[in-house]
Amino acid sequence: MSILINEDTKVLVQGITGGFGGKHAGLSLDYGTDICAGVTPGKGGQTFNHSVKNVPIYDTVAEAVKETGATASAIFVPPPFAADAILEAIDAEVELIVAITEGIPVMDMMKVKSVLANSSSRLIGPNCPGLVTPGKGVDSYGGCRIGIAPGYIHKRGNVGVVSRSGTLTYEAVYQLTELGYGQSTCVGIGGDPINGTSHLDVLEMFNDDDETEAIIMIGEIGGNAEAEAARWAKESCKKPIAGFIAGATAPPGRTMGHAGAIVGGEEDTADAKKAILRECGIAVADNPSEMGKTLLEAWGK
Amino acid sequence: MNIHEYQAQELFTQFGVPCPAGKVASSKAEAEAAAKELGGGKLVIKAQVHAGGRGKGTFKNGFQGGVHLGDTPAEIGDLAAKMIGETLVTKQTGDAGKLVSKVMIGEAVSIEKEYYLAILMDRDTSAPVIVASTEGGMDIEEVAEKTPEAIVREFVHPTLGLQAYNVRKLIKGLKLNKDQGKQFNKLIKSLYNLFLSNDCSMVEINPMVVTKDGQLMCLDAKFGFDDNALYRHPNIVAYRDITEEDPREVEASKFDLNYIGLDGSIACLVNGAGLAMATMDIIKFSGGDPANFLDVGGGATEEQVAAAFKIIMGDPNVKGILVNIFGGIMDCEVIAKGIVEACKQTGLTLPLVVRLEGNNVKAGKEVLANSGLPIISADTLSEAAKKAVAEVG
Fold first, then answer.
1. Given an 8 Å threshold on Cβ–Cβ distance, is A105 in contact with B381?
2. What is the mean pLDDT of chain B?
3. Under CATH, which number does the domain A10-124 receive?
4. What is the predicted ipTM?
5. Which of these, A61, A105, B66, B281, could form a disulfide with A248 (CB 3.0-4.6 Å)?
């Protein structure tokens, strides 16, 4: 199995009629993902037309879930309305909510996170590339792609990838695929300071997943999520992990693109994090070109 | 985004947070008038720049100190004349210093005791935390290290907000007496309201003081605002002072580019924040120094790429450029055309190493190879960094 999503996952897209949401809903359909519904308030009854199929649009998430049985939602709603869109998905008891939107105010996310804690939903993101469980067809066709990652660089296999960043995840995935090693599931948890799912949450899932045999964990400066995950892994993770921490050259006090990527104290620098990862038995790549290679060495391949 | 001290004082006044009376002036005459309006007694005049260490700074005209005391409007006017239009150098400004275009004139306060008070958004608990200490006026990190027991942390519930018990615990922790506690209750409620209403990421008051006549007030404040929330705070956006910012960063922000200037010699242009940081890291790892962080985003246009090249080339320290694009969804051929166009438009003369990977990469590489431009191509991130370092020597 994979984690969180598989070939059969039914996905709805909030914001499917926007340019960005529509483009990526189309790419997911092309990848073979079961995009079963779109939600845009005021456009219920229309359809999202794509070469593969025409997807029905609903006014509310609750209606879309009721009519189609969708269990996952991809959110492409602009920042001022994104927190409301996440809350609506929580209210409709969507199991997996993936917020792609970049630029949601922190105070909005603070409230969302508080509601999330007492709900049955899991949130990935915001400000994330989403998830991919690769399919078994050509260029990994037939998989489940929620978000904006390029599907074709993947290959079905046994490495779990978790990262805060988009393109850096693609870099790691691409290295693995080129080396001949596929992925079980790739999860982009997002670059914001408050997010729904942490590195640790994903490591736990990979640890419990039979298909995942080894893990790449990519982090960056700011916060202590990577350190927390590493300390857990030292005690409880049975699988080899390779890590990379971006931002060794970032100046303190500056936000490096991701709202969460900022060095605040001595413990959230790249060097400090790498040292903690190493102490916890994680194979750390200093060179981002060698994330795949570093994992294979740790994995004994 | 940073704001000036006089702007912080405006926010305090608006939200009912007690602070000394103050006025801003941008000329000698205005400063004299402000001093007259504030009435008799000792006054303080402070240069308004976004940098710490003002008191111990030196103006380039030789005048010592960006913070002074004065007794009469005439004296304040003379001090203002020595500061306004002059450049102040402090330990935080670098050698270039900062041009002072405004000064703030305020009542000088006689201090009985100093405290530290801050409200921050805590990412670990996803809730606001109030940090307070009896050791005010000092570097709080030093206090945390030497006397951690002197720091009180009080978490605020993310949806319920500040509760009465939170305030009682803070009053206890700060060892305030009954009257001071009563004043603090009002102060912290106003300050929390200010924090929440303006989407602050941080409000740090150092020091909060009890004056000789028993008044609790906030003297110096540092604010941080959530950039993502600025769209709903035009009043805060109006406080932005672009003369305080790196002109390259101001230019980049016009094109929605995420740029941070550094002082190395290899400029980089990358799509995605994580990959952009990793590219800077690998330049360093390969023996070079990055000149900047530059994320052009997931859907960069030709216009943005051209603007990015212009900004990079405006930096005299730059000796070479490394472009690293992982074209996941973007077509590498389109990106390659954008790079070639930008090179032609800007008349690029510096060595340019390009690493393209991803969607339609073969066609992209052909565009670069056939452009007639001296572009150095690389297949991996590692190779690209090595080539860029070799080019700048």
1. no
2. 91
3. 3.40.50.720
4. 0.90
5. B281
